[in-house]
Design a protein that fits this description.
With 354 residues, the protein is an alpha/beta fold. The chain is 44% helix and 15% strand. The chain has two domains: 188 residues, 3-Layer(aba) Sandwich (Rossmann fold); 146 residues, Glycogen Phosphorylase B (Rossmann fold), CATH 3.40.50. Strands 2-1-3-4-5-6 form a six-stranded parallel sheet, with helices on both faces. Strands 8-7-9-10-11 form a five-stranded parallel sheet, sandwiched between helices. The protein is globular and about 60 Å long.
Length: 354
Amino acid sequence: MKKVLIVGHILELGRTEEVYKRGFSAFGCQVQYFAWKEAAPSLVSRSLQDRIAWRLAWKVLAKSANRKLVEIANQFKPDLTLVISPLLLHPDSILALKQHGLVFVFFTDNPIDTHHTHSNSWVQRGFPLWDAALIWSQELVERLMANGVKKAFFHPFCSDVEYHFPKRQANPVYDVAFIGNWDASRKREQYLKAIADYRLGLWGSNYWNTHCQEPALKGLCQGMCNYQEIPEVLGSAKMGLNILRPQNEEGHNIRTYEIPATGTLMLTERSKELLNLFAEDKEAVYFSSPDELKQKVEYLLENPALIESIAEAGYKKALENRITDRVTEIADLYQQLRCSLGNNDLQLLHRQEA
């Protein structure tokens, strides 16, 4: 595997496609990147006019971008194409990409979900065409297979230790820090309300000020923090809080690794997948309700030595799950599937000769 084509929305620091581009480059691969934002800017624009055009004619707009993608692939001839979130990828383009090498997809959202930002008719028609589908939930692996995906694999998120590392303050300003946007389910509001009496640091979009209905949280949000500021933000608190969005409740999210990678204790909503990734009360602390969250915060603040020991163990686990580890796993899978295809070709040749 010498040449890798990565297909994503935008090459912005910290986005999955950018992290994997760095990962494959460090692995020694020649990497070509294709961005939907550059090929068809209106498809990823947030202006009202472009959003209306998206709703009315996204397929027409996307087909032109798909032609540009196929042209790039024909020139580059990748051994492996890795698609990050295939919302704009036409099924015919998957077939065209497979003329050069294997084609993998990493579903960063739940493609079984019917929400238009997670799936569409092209995504669903593409299910049986992928050489391998990667996703962050073992349960969704099984559901993908039931929906026509031939080879699906559990592929967790990872630590980006180049940008996320311990930057702990000697005297943390906050008891708990939460980095995350307001969510329409209002679940995040309920969890944060439960611990609003503690020193709570909150970072996210302005929706926390315009949409949040909990008076105790009004005015707390300090705005967005960028990817490089995460270690400093988490280092300013004794604990980092992780509240899963509804679409991630069957698995985990990127915050799962960002928090422990900074040497901060991860206090996270409980899920079956997360429990398999970080041992409960040893590498992370879990909760399943606002009341349990409040109880855990109170107990931990009374036991600072426990905070330190769990944070240290979580940090060590995070270092075992870096982008280099994920790229190595993909490379191993690529080799296995290539060998499998080669054996199938030999079997077909023997049957023809017989």
